[in-house]
């Protein structure tokens, strides 16, 4: 299959591209920079230069492909309105190019806020609709195109997709711990985060592209829920610093933008995904990765 991938040089995207190539697929990747383009070309990926605001480029990339993986996102926490608007426009453009083809269109999403009080499951619909919602309501917007002959699929990722070199939420928490001299958690730290190793997530995305029917919601989740106090303790042990509770009222001041996320319940199940795709996570756990030094690069900055 010829697959067009946005975010092809990103954390999840780069591992997914490796998995796609190993499975024999041809890949065209969107690249913003010379460095990203060179890294993709070195793997044998055909490069298209541009970013998520280049809608004509996105449309051509999707129209020329047999499947599309949309894994890019601006992640500009200082201007969420613009990030959400860009995400929605990108999804609409990519999906429109696939109308009437029955080709797969996998859209990255998350497990947050799907099922307050319990682990999110694949049957839980996303509550986010409209351009002003998180990610511009892109999951539901992609599903709007199912009746127009697009095999839209939501790939919902754990709040931490971890591994050596990860620069996501856990890397940010490590950075905060280094800056503060303590590894913190919010309140009693009983709220839980789902987790998955990046290579397992990449394989799930590829299997979803190949197999999942239209309207599928897939969960890239290996561990259903790790108490955040255990994550903080693992970070503290790895850095050799104390572990402490942070009052909920002080979370934003202590952690910055991630305070609200680290205080939230973001557990999820992947039972239905595993059964549908025959996918079984095999990578190390989050706590094993932290203990093994997967985040040593943060301290070396």
TrEMBL record:
Gene3D superfamilies referenced in this protein's UniProt entry, alphabetically: NAD(P)-binding Rossmann-like Domain
Pfam family of the protein (one): Epimerase
Domain NAD-dependent epimerase/dehydratase residues, every copy: 3-124
Annotated spans, Disordered: 117-137
Domain of life, per lineage: Bacteria
UniProt name for this protein: 3-beta hydroxysteroid dehydrogenase
Organism: Curtobacterium oceanosedimentum
């Amino acid at each position: 299959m010829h697959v067009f991938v946005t975010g092809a040089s990103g954390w999840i995207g780069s591992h997914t591209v490796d998995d796609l190539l190993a499975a024999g697929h041809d890949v065209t990747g969107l690249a913003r920079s010379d460095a990203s383009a060179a890294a993709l070309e070195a793997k044998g990926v055909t490069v298209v230069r541009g970013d998520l605001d280049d809608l004509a480029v996105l449309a051509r990339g999707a129209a020329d492909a047999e499947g599309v993986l949309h894994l890019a996102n601006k992640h500009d926490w200082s201007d969420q309105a613009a990030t959400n608007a860009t995400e929605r426009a990108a999804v609409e453009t990519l999906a429109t190019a696939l109308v009437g083809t029955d080709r797969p269109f996998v859209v990255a999403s998350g497990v947050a806020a799907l099922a307050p009080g319990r682990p999110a499951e694949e049957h839980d619909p996303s509550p986010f609709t409209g351009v002003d919602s998180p990610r511009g309501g892109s999951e539901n917007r992609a599903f709007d195109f199912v009746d127009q002959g697009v095999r839209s699929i939501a790939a919902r990722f754990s709040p931490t997709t971890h591994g050596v070199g990860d620069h996501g939420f856990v890397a940010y928490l490590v950075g905060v711990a280094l800056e503060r001299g303590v590894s913190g958690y919010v309140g009693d730290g009983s709220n839980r985060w789902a987790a998955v190793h990046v290579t397992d997530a990449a394989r799930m995305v590829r299997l979803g592209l190949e197999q999942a029917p239209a309207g599928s919601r897939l969960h890239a989740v290996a561990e259903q829920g790790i108490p955040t106090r255990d994550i903080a303790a693992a970070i503290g042990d790895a850095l050799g610093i104390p572990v402490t509770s942070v009052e909920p009222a002080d979370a934003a001041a202590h952690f910055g933008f991630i305070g609200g996320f680290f205080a939230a319940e973001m557990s999820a199940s992947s039972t239905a995904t595993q059964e549908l795709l025959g996918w079984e996570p095999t990578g190390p756990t989050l706590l094993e990765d932290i203990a093994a030094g997967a985040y040593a690069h943060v301290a070396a900055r």
